[in-house]
Amino acid sequence: MSDTRRRVKVYTLNEDRQWDDRGTGHVSSTFVERLKGISLLVRAESDGSLLLESKISPNTAYQKQQDTLIVWSEADNYDLALSFQEKAGCDEIWEKICQVQGKDPALDITQDPIDESEEDHFEEIPETTHLVELPPCELGRLEEIADLVTSVLSSPIRREKLALALMSEGYIKKLLGLFRVCEDLDNREGLHHLYEIVRGVLFLNKAALFEVMFSDDCIMDVVGCLEYDPALVQPKRHREFLTKTAKFKEVIPITDSELRQKIHQTYRVQYIQDIILPTPSVFEENFLSTLTSFIFFNKVEIVSMLQEDEKFLTEVFAQLTDEATEESKRRELVNFVKEFCAFSQTLQPQNRDAFYKTLANLGILPALEIVMGMDDLQVRAAAIDIFSYLVEFSPSMVREFVMQEPQQTEDDVLLINVVIKQMICDSDPELGGAVQLMGLLRTLIDPENMLASTNKTEKTEFLSFFYKYCMHVLTAPLLANTAHDKNSKDHPEGSAKINPVCPDNFQTAQLLALILELLTFCVEHHTYHIKTYIMNKDLLRRVLVLMNSKHTFLALCALRFMRRIIGLKDEYYNRYIIKGNLFEPVINALLDNGTRYNLLNSAIIELFEFIKVEDIKSLIAHIVDNFYKALESIEYVQTFKGLKGRYEQEKDRQSQKLNRYRRDARFLDEDEELWFNDEDDDEDGEAVERRMDDDFSDSYEKFMEAKKGAANGANGANNAKSATIPPASPAVTSNTSSSSVKTVALPATPVVKTALVGLVDYPDDEDEEEEDEEEEQSPRKRPRLSS
């Protein structure tokens, strides 16, 4: 069999009964050795990869819809669809499928799979019986027709045959004619039967029947039949709602009659699926899959037709940004764009890409900047939804726009600042809009989705922009609510207790929690920029004021912020924490919590446990030196004893390390005496001079010259002595018998003691001085902690 290649889109039906686009490629039907049969193959047009490989099984039910769709199911609950660009391609592949299955290509569906019991049963039916025999379409036969339609739903073969019978005889329109008669006669029994009939026909799940039922001249009668549910005392008034309550608003007149008809049809069919039909049971879920597909492909067609009408969209955005546009008109325009973006989610990726680029070129972002600042809550909510579509699709596009704004406008009206202000000013008690906007901001400042290959500077440029123009707006509520603690760094003792804040208002606390969550994200992902900002604004001190909040979730947010900072194990942060004595509010919160075993208690202990396990020496020393007396009574965990142990181990290690370099002055004198004795045995005076020159600094040149003279001439000994011994130096007795050695050693002894010992012991002396200073300062640094 020769390969036939046609351009198609591959769709799969997900768990939510929505079609997911799997890509575009070219389809062929060929024999696949591995699958042992003729198969449908789709290779991606972009890279030739295999998008679909499906064997045409004799028992698989294939269905052709709308001339360019082929739909079928594989395994359990795995539906596939091929959407052809051309009708000719669809017809050709359909013929191949029918050829493999031995079916007539004139049919729109091949035989459905059946179980063994059905197979045995239908073997008895003569092959000449192609259709179900329908009773005459008369008022007196409605009950019989309803029973027939209901009975076939359990059998795939009988459903197919009934569908063919309904199509071949124009039966649907005859039934709808009877509906009008029954309604005129107020024949409730007949209307109830028509409800069962129409509902059953919808559950046949046949696209060809839908095309008839949802046409302009039939759909309102179909809705009318579905009003007369036998389970209801009074019929619903769905037609009244669709014709009188639901208004079709054209923000800009639509001149294309086909497009208008398609919009009306889609709205009404969606209403039937979502409102009129009852929620399908587990056994009926697949009965309406074709109805879902019908709506899906209608939406794709609507978006494509609108997008191709350049004059229409241009006019929409011109009116949206025009200051003269009335508020009510602008509201309708915003709602239209929102719905337009929602429909665009049905497009395949490359088409969606073109769609959003079209919106960007038309000025969607400047338009959003205007409408987000409006007082109308509905307009603002719709604008936020549109903004979320744009950010989710292409954060880089939004970033590129906002970085160009400072050249054209003031900081206050930057798009991101408008978004931040909307988040801060959300009037919803539960802050639903603020939560949504916070998620969008996090997406925008997330370095993970910033392009690296095409634009390596995007991350640096955008983060610099954000921290320069926007960060002060984001942190303003946080700084404002902790402002009365601004002088605490000048009075570190008990500062958290002197100024017990915090916002008692639940909505404000929620807002601060959102801001802290965003700042914590920044600490984790923006190493340099956020570090500079925290240091310059002393931000951690202000955040830790919130540890006093009566809202535990806010205290936990503040603690989480500090935990992220410590988790980086950055010594710059550690020195900042130590210098600011910023553990004090955390420890106060722990002590104030008392013996309560709650989340706050566990989170604080985990913070100190992390410091202990990671052995962050600078923080351990600071905690033990300043707070151990307040913490040593906590024995239900070993964390604080462990910190003390780590501190003692490090102190012992440092002490041993220093002792290796520390010697007693007497031993040093004896060593030097022996060294001079050994060197005196060397007859080469020049060697002695080189050794001395290596071991001593240039400041002792005079001494070495005097020593050299003493070694070369005995008469120079007294001169050397007088030249080198300091006036107040004590005399040192040598054990050697040589007078020449004695005269050399005498001046050497005090020189070595003051110079060499000083050089070796210098680190130790400095360490002792630091320890002395710490002992003097410790009582003043230790906070006044209260339990």
TrEMBL record:
Full protein name: Serine/threonine-protein phosphatase 4 regulatory subunit 3-B
Gene it is expressed from: PPP4R3BB
InterPro entries in UniProt: ARM-like (IPR011989), ARM-type_fold (IPR016024), EVH1_PP4R3 (IPR055236), P4R3-like_central_dom (IPR006887), PH-like_dom_sf (IPR011993), PP4R3-like (IPR051137)
Coiled coil: 644-671
Region Disordered, annotated ranges: 711-787
Domain Serine/threonine-protein phosphatase 4 regulatory subunit 3-like central span(s) in chain numbering: 144-649
UniProt domain PP4R3 EVH1-like: residue ranges: 5-101
Family classification: Belongs to the SMEK family.
Compositional bias ranges of the Low complexity kind: 711-721, 730-745
Keywords: Coiled coil
Gene3D superfamilies recorded: Leucine-rich Repeat Variant, Pleckstrin-homology domain (PH domain)/Phosphotyrosine-binding domain (PTB)
Organism: Characodon lateralis
Alphabetical list of PANTHER family matching this protein: ATP SYNTHASE GAMMA-RELATED, SERINE_THREONINE-PROTEIN PHOSPHATASE 4 REGULATORY SUBUNIT 3B
Taxonomic lineage: Eukaryota, Metazoa, Chordata, Craniata, Vertebrata
Acidic residues: bias regions: 762-776
